[in-house]
């Protein structure tokens, strides 16, 4: 058994091939192990290095590449060595871990002599060196250092060096960006291959891989991948500014967002790499006729396929504010009692929906109609992702029915507007409010007040004078508590306003969902002459209005969220 | 159809210590009953839930209460600026909050019985009193939510007003950057339910103390109950007596002096809103011919009670009294006060006079 390892020496930026097993008898393929412990660094070390034969020099079989260098793609083209006489070996210890099968997939694809997609890579004048690793076997390698590719390294950094190694991935056109299998398979190529997707219980790796690849594609689209990358670049530049922390509030904001974007992207990339690794493993197992490994890898793929569905849903709620609690405000349109009754029905629908989702709700403000229903009401919905879901409800809701308030039984159309405001728990992210900018007033008062009056009404309205934004609370039993509650509403409204302002500034990163205006008509509830609820944005419809009014809203919410995130191919 | 009152009983403010305090209070009062008949009544929300009613019966009560409230319309508003239907409906909700033991999670069938702190018949009676006799809601439920406190109140004790909450904010502002005031001795004259004294007692530093005085035995008892409920026995000391009389030993020692004395001119008493005029103690409302008898009396004593740099805040009937008071302090009080200010309440009425002893 024999194996080779390339080792990059951080100091010189050079790669060497290590022969671990001098007794390697016959054929082998270089197993290129890069176990990096660091993130890719932007520095380019592009100097030619001296080939060094370090055979036998490593006892413990640990390969640690602590350095890094990203060579340009041009350089990487010179890398390819031709490897004859390949074989696969297993049980190489990487980074002191348990034995792991290592694969560089079928050797033919990385050997210069007969690689197909890679054959354009030239040898010749740029070839840096050919190392004789044993008398019988030769590995041709050229262009030292080019094997350092970000994804290869992050592969290890994210998986603690335990992953099987895939090095064939160096040669794709987007090699520097996109992970691939040893034979150059990327997520995009898997999708392009249009492999048939079978049921989950069909044990076919291509079917699993295709399903997972599609999920990854969808997840990226939902996360608005391209915008995410642009934003990340922007933030990275910001984070690296030496004077960043001169403004600690701003710096905190920037580094929080930077961290959260990095986290999101890392997770997807890791998932992508995992898929490709498992594909490598399946292929390897087939070549090796290792049934156990094959079924193991197949199970892993199946598991990924199931997880990927969950991740798709998660990706719908990837907005920065999505995990927040929120306020839902319903306002009745013109039209008196029928309209007020409709507003109350809408509010009731959200109360039940929130309760069914396990959210805690409390009424902040409620202005009843004269005869029935409400003119306006605000509830607080407490719980994870309350805003993420509820934001899909922003807009005008229309009702058509025979009004029970109309003695001549005519058909009425009424409207209720819904606004949703996220509650940012992170006090440091709050917009600063100057006490002097506030005008606090008793909501309803008259007469001399004080000892003259006994009233349980201690409603308070707070006006933020510079913006004209107001918040009212009247459902608490003391003025002090009403003030605190109105302050919280005001804070979240100002935060949202600030958010919208910043979003406009970063237009390329803007999400239509952060638009907080009452908006246009989004949904129609028809009780007469036919019965149907239809979302005008997605055309999602349900023929049982009662179930919807009893809080069964998730179908509408999910279809809207996916439609709004999935619609634009270019947004990926 | 669900009961419309079922959601959200938990917003109700309950200091974690409340129940325990209540228990200890109750048990001690059972073992050794207080000597007088002035024993404070247990407010509704602290009564044990030993009654029950079918939810359908409670729904009936609710419908009845609502229709009674609706029948009021704007009659009371037009009559004496009393409550309208909307406000009464909200009070029904709060009455239920106080009367119903918080339901455990999980909805059962509609015929479930609901545990109550009063018998259903009494609930009918209470709401009848509220609407027909104009009995103040706070007396009906035996408590008033004031700032972040729930204070027990009963007939004979003035129900603390929302406006008065601001006195605690004013004190909070001055003690913020002033250790002498924060750790000093304060007095609340005519404390009533103990509201201001408790409010201030909770924002002072560890060394700060409040002496609360009141002439009325009922107020004295109720304030004592409230002080205990908030565990402030070591911070708030109650002394029974008229205004500054019980504070003779404190001359020149007070860091702060606050009061919400009766300030309504005698002539206005007869035309007061029914809830106030018919039910609240006249002694806590009537401030003499121009309403300023007690305010002026306190002002006269303030200079001798406050130490140099000491702060005061008084509530008044409005603009006229504020101006009068400031004038008095500038001219007649021999220039012993400075930084005199008139502060409006949230309705925009000039309500408070504040200042410092030189």
Automatic annotation (TrEMBL), chain A:
* Source superkingdom: Eukaryota
The record's similarity note reads: Belongs to the prokaryotic/mitochondrial release factor family.
Q: Which residues form the Peptide chain release factor domain?
A: 283-393
Q: Name one GO cellular component term.
A: cytoplasm
Query: Keyword set for this entry?
Result: Protein biosynthesis
Q: Does the keyword Protein biosynthesis apply?
A: yes
InterPro entries reported for this sequence: PCRF, Pep_chain_release_fac_I, Pep_chain_release_fac_I_sf, PrfB
Q: Does the keyword Glycosyltransferase apply?
A: no
The record's GO molecular-function terms, alphabetically, read:
translation release factor activity, codon specific
Gene3D superfamilies in alphabetical order: 3.30.160.20, 3.30.70.1660, Release factor
The protein, known as: Peptide chain release factor domain-containing protein
Query: What Pfam family is a match for this entry?
Result: PCRF
What's the source species' lineage? Eukaryota, Viridiplantae, Streptophyta, Embryophyta, Tracheophyta
UniProtKB/TrEMBL annotation, chain B:
> Which InterPro entries does this one have?
DNA_methylase_N6_adenine_CS, HemK-like, RF_glutamine_MTase_cyano, SAM-dependent_MTases_sf
Write the record's keywords in alphabetical order, separated by commas.
Answer: Methyltransferase, S-adenosyl-L-methionine, Transferase
Entry GO MF terms:
nucleic acid binding; protein methyltransferase activity; S-adenosylmethionine-dependent methyltransferase activity
Q: Does the keyword Magnesium apply?
A: no
Gene Ontology process terms (BP): methylation
Q: Which PROSITE patterns match?
A: N6_MTASE
Q: Fetch the Gene3D superfamilies from UniProt.
A: Vaccinia Virus protein VP39 (3.40.50.150)
Keyword S-adenosyl-L-methionine: yes or no? yes
Q: Which domain of life is it from?
A: Eukaryota
Q: Which PANTHER family match?
A: PTHR47441, RELEASE FACTOR GLUTAMINE METHYLTRANSFERASE
Q: What is this protein called?
A: Uncharacterized protein
């Amino acid at each position: 058994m024999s194996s080779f390892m390339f080792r990059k020496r951080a100091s010189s930026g050079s790669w060497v091939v290590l022969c671990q097993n001098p007794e390697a008898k016959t054929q082998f393929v270089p197993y290129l192990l890069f176990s990096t412990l660091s993130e890719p660094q932007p520095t380019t070390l592009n100097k030619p290095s001296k080939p060094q034969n370090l055979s036998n020099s490593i006892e413990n079989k640990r390969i640690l590449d602590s350095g890094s260098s990203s060579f340009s793609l041009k350089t990487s083209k010179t890398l390819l060595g031709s490897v004859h006489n390949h074989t696969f070996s297993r049980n190489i210890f990487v980074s002191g871990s348990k034995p792991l099968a290592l694969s560089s997939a079928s050797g033919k694809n990385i050997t210069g002599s007969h690689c197909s997609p890679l054959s354009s890579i030239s040898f010749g004048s740029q070839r840096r060196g050919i190392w004789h690793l044993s008398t019988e076997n030769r590995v041709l390698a050229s262009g030292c250092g080019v094997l350092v590719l970000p994804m290869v390294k992050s592969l290890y950094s994210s998986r603690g060096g335990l992953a099987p190694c895939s090095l064939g991935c160096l040669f794709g056109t987007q090699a520097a960006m996109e992970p691939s299998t040893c034979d150059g398979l990327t997520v995009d190529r898997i999708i392009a291959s249009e492999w048939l997707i079978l049921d989950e219980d069909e044990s076919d790796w291509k079917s699993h891989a295709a399903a997972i690849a599609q999920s990854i594609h969808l997840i990226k689209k939902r996360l608005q991948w391209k915008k995410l990358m642009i934003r990340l670049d922007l933030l990275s530049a910001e984070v690296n500014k030496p004077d960043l922390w001169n403004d600690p509030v701003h710096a905190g904001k920037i580094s929080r967002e930077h961290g959260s974007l990095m986290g999101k992207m890392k997770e997807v990339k890791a998932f992508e790499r995992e898929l490709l690794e498992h594909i490598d493993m399946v292929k390897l197992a087939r070549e090796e006729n290792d049934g156990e490994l094959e079924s193991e890898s197949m199970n892993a793929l199946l598991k990924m396929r199931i997880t990927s569905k969950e991740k798709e849903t998660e990706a719908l709620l990837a907005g920065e504010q999505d995990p927040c609690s929120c306020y839902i405000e319903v306002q009745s349109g013109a039209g008196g009692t029928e309209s007020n009754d409709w507003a109350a029905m809408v509010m009731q629908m959200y109360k039940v929906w929130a309760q069914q989702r396990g959210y805690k709700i409390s009424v902040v403000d409620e202005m009843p109609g004269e005869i029935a229903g409400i003119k306006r009401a605000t509830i607080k919905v407490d719980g994870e992702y309350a805003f993420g879901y509820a934001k899909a409800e922003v807009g005008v809701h229309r009702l058509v029915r025979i009004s029970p308030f109309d003695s001549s039984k005519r058909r009425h159309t009424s409207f209720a507007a819904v606004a949703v405001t996220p509650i940012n728990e992170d006090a440091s992210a709050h917009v600063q409010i100057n006490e002097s900018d506030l005008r606090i007033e008793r909501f309803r008062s008259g007469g001399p007040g004080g000892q003259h009056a006994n009233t349980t009404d201690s409603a308070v309205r707070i006006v933020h004078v510079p913006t004209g934004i107001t918040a009212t609370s009247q459902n608490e039993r003391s003025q002090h508590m009403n003030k605190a509650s109105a302050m919280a509403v005001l804070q979240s409204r100002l935060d949202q306003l600030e958010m919208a302002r910043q979003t406009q500034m970063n237009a390329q990163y803007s999400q239509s969902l952060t638009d907080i205006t009452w908006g246009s008509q989004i949904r129609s509830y028809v009780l007469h002459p036919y019965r149907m609820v239809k979302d005008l944005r997605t055309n999602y419809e349900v023929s049982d209005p009662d179930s919807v009014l009893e809080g069964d809203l998730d179908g509408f919410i999910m279809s809207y969220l996916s439609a709004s995130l999935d619609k634009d191919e270019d947004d990926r | 159809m669900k009961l419309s009152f079922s959601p959200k009983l938990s917003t109700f403010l309950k200091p974690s210590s409340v129940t325990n305090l209540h228990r200890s209070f109750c048990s001690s009062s059972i073992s050794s009953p207080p000597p007088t008949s002035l024993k404070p009544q247990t407010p509704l929300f602290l009564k044990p839930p030993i009654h029950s009613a079918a939810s359908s019966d409670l729904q009936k009560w609710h419908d009845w209460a609502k229709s009674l409230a609706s029948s009021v319309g704007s009659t009371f508003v037009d009559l004496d600026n009393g409550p309208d239907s909307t406000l009464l409906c909200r009070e029904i909700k709060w009455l239920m909050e106080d009367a119903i033991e918080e339901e455990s999670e999980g909805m059962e069938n509609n015929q479930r019985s609901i545990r109550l702190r009063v018998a259903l018949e009494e609930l009918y009676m209470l709401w009848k009193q509220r609407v027909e006799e104009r009995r103040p809601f706070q007396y009906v439920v035996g408590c008033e939510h004031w700032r972040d406190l729930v204070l027990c109140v009963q007939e004979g004790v003035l129900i603390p007003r929302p406006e008065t909450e601001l006195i605690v904010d004013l004190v909070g502002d001055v003690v913020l950057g002033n250790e002498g005031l924060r750790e000093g001795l304060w007095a609340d004259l005519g404390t009533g339910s103990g509201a201001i004294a408790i409010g201030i007692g909770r924002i002072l530093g560890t060394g700060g103390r409040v002496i609360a005085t009141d002439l009325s035995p009922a107020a004295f008892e109720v304030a004592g109950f409230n002080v205990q409920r908030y565990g402030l026995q070591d911070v708030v000391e109650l002394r029974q007596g008229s205004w500054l009389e019980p504070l003779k030993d404190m001359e020149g020692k007070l860091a702060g002096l606050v009061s919400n004395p009766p300030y309504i001119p005698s002539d206005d008493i007869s035309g007061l809103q029914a809830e106030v005029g018919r039910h609240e103690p006249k002694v806590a409302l009537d401030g003499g011919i121009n309403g300023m008898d007690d305010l002026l009396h306190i002002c006269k004593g303030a200079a001798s009670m406050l130490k140099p740099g000491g702060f005061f805040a008084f509530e008044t009937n409005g603009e006229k009294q504020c101006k009068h008071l400031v004038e008095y302090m500038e001219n007649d009080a021999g220039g012993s006060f400075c930084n005199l200010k008139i502060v409006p309440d949230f309705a925009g009425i000039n309500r408070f006079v504040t200042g410092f002893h030189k």
